[in-house]
Amino acid sequence: MRRIIPLLLAAIFPICLFSQSVSPEVISSAGDYYQGATVSLSWTLGEIATETYSNGNYILTQGFQQPFGITIHGIDLDVLVYLEGPFEGGSMNTTLKDEGQIPLNQPFNTSPWFYTGSESVASIPANVVDWVLIDLRDATSAANATQSTSVETQAAFILNDGSVVGLDGSSVLQFTATINNDPYIGVWHRNHLGVLSANPPVESGGIYVYDFSTSLSNAHGGGLGYKLIDTGVYGMAGGDANGDGFVNNTDKLLWEAQAGTQGYESADFNLDAQVNNPDKNDVQIENTTLSSQVPN
Fold it and tell me: What is the pLDDT of residue 52?
């Protein structure tokens, strides 16, 4: 038998390698493969030992568990994130909406975003705090999710409870892009530091969910560009009046130029439709050591 077994393996092994199907299959009495946004699981019944062989082009796994990749075609996103400036008492104010200051057209068509999307509404939905820009990136890690990995961007509304929703004021965001690696979520606001999800969102019931608010580590770069805004609540840092990713003296000069004005102003960091001392003292000055950690 010792002479027969190597001969059998030599005869069978090349056949197994070069007859592998493009589509993954489980060759066992029972087995399956599942992959979510952050975990994959393969199993077979009765295969207690596994070993992998490769000739550089094909892979054979003893146990007949064949690795393969997942491509996501279109993605629905349920994102929760808070803005520091308007946050107070467990939610964000809706003063800009209440006073009719939020524009009906997305405001990111200027520097530094230059977003050309045509998002607009006939009226601002209930509970809206402001517009945000959501940037979907396709990357192997947050550190690698540079601007070149951006596959789709859309303007959306952020509600007072932190929900990021579509233009109807309630629906999750729907993206049509194809994701070949993992999805990462960038969030931009016109006067708060942009953030990127530190991890891919988790799929639940066909919707990919990500909550930035529960931990400093949920944002890539952590406390270098993200902050604690209330007990156990984390949010995007305010004070970036020109949207360049830094909170510095340039933003203070913009505040000085706008001080005393009312309306939809870039130096209105607490979003109460007024540019005054609380914007500078409570927000901008507090964040001069922070900068956006979204990879360029």
Answer: 53
**β-sheet bridge partners, residue 40:** 35
Collapsed DSSP state (helix, strand, coil) of residue 108: coil
Q: Closest by alpha carbon to 236, among 98, 76, 75, 92?
A: 92
Of the pLDDT bands very low, low, confident and very high (cuts 50, 70, 90), residue 202 is: very high
Range of the domain at 15: 4-62
Query: Residue 73 — pLDDT band, cuts 50, 70, 90?
Result: confident
The answer to whether residue 295 is domain-embedded is no
- Do 77 and 173 lie in a common domain? yes
- Whole-prediction pTM: 0.78
Token pair belonging to 203: 């799929």
Residues 195 and 77 occupy one common structural domain = yes
What confidence tens digit (pLDDT) does each residue in 30-62 have?
A: 666 655 544 445 556 555 545 555 444 444 555
Q: Same domain, yes or no, for 81 and 21?
A: no
Token pair in block for residue 249: 């003296």
Place of tokens 């001392």: 277
Same domain? For 82 and 207 the reply is yes
Q: What are phi and psi of 53, to 5 degrees?
A: -120, 145
156 in the same domain as 228 = yes
DSSP 78-130: EEE--BTTTEETTEE--HHHHTT-S-SB-S-SSTTT------B-SSPPTTEEE
Cis peptide before 112 (omega within 30 of 0): yes
What are the CA-CA distances from residue 150 to residues 112, 137, 226, 292, 295 (Å)? 16, 4, 21, 17, 11
CA-wise closest residue to 251 among 193, 199, 204: 193
Strand partners, 139: 182
